[in-house]
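Case study: Nitronate monooxygenase.
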Amino acid sequence: MTSERLQRFGDCLALPLIAAPMFLVSGVELMVAACRSGVIGSFPTANCRSTEQLDAWLTEIEAQLLQHERQTGRKAAPLCPNLIVHRSNVRLEQDLAALLRHKPEIVITSVGSPSPVLKPLHDAGALVFADVASIRHAERAAEVGADGLVLLTAGAGGQTGWLNPFAFVRAVRAFYDGIIVLAGGISDGRALHAAEVLGCDLGYMGTKFVATRESMADDRYKRMLVESSADDILLTTAFTGLQTSMLKPSIIAAGLDPDDLPARGAIDIAEDIEVAARESRPKRWRDIWSGGHSTSGVTDVLGVDDLVARTIAEYREAGGR
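Here is what the predicted structure looks like once written out:
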C-alpha cells in the first residue's frame, strides 16, 4: 500500500479499495468474497432485519474469514460495518452494542455526526470513518476525532453528494491529515489510482459490486446495470428524502415518470429500516434501483474474485503499487 495511514492493515489489502455499503445489496456472501480477495468489505447494519440478525451475520462472516485464513495462511481484509447514526434510528444503541461485541477494525458512520459513537468504538479498537457530503460536515467530523472521512461526491450511487471530487478532496486535504476515502465515480483501477494521486487513501466502489454474482441484488438489477450508462442515472430526492442517484430504466419499469416523480418528505430512518425489513417491501425499495455514474463501467456480471483481479491489473497498469 502507498499510504502510511493504512500501514496498520499490513499486507492484507490487495487494493486501497472498499466494497461500498449498499442498502439491500451487501450481504454475507459479498462481504466474505470481498474480504477474501483483499478488499475491505462494508455493509449497512440496516440490511439486517434485526440486531439479532446483525449479530448472526457478523458471527458467520468472522467464521468464514477465519477459516480462509487458516486454509491459506493469508489474513483477510477488514470488515467494515456501516452504522446509521441519525437520531431517528431506533436500533442505533442495539446495533452499536453488537458491533462492540464483535470488535470490527473499521466502522463507517452515516447520516449524522459520529460523535455519539466515537468513544465506545475507539475503546473497542475500531477506526471510525464518517460519511460527509460537504466541507463543513468534513470539518465537524474532523473536529470530533473521526479517523477517516468518506467524501460523498457527485456521481456516487445511492445517497450521493454534489461536490466535484477534485475540488472536494483538495479542500479537505488542506486541513485534514487523516484517512480520506473517495466515494463516487470509481469504476476501475485507473480511477482508483487517480484518487490516490489526488490525495485519497482509499476509494469506494459500489455499483460494480452490485453486478457481482455474490451480491444480493435481483438478477434484473444486475442486467440493467450492464445495459445502462451514466446517461441513465437520475438524481432525485423522491425515494429517500435525500439526494440519491437512481436508475431511470427501473423507475420507468415501475410505471413512474422520471420527469414527474411524487415528492418525498423528510428522511425517516426508523420508518425506512422497518419498511426494508418487511417481506412485502414497497416498490421504491423492491423495484427501483440505484446506480452511480460508474454504471458506464459495468460491462458484465462477474464473480468478486474476477472483478478484483481485473481492478488490480488496471490499477497496476496505471502505476499503482
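For the exam, be able to explain this: Residues 21 and 43 are 4 Å apart (CA to CA).
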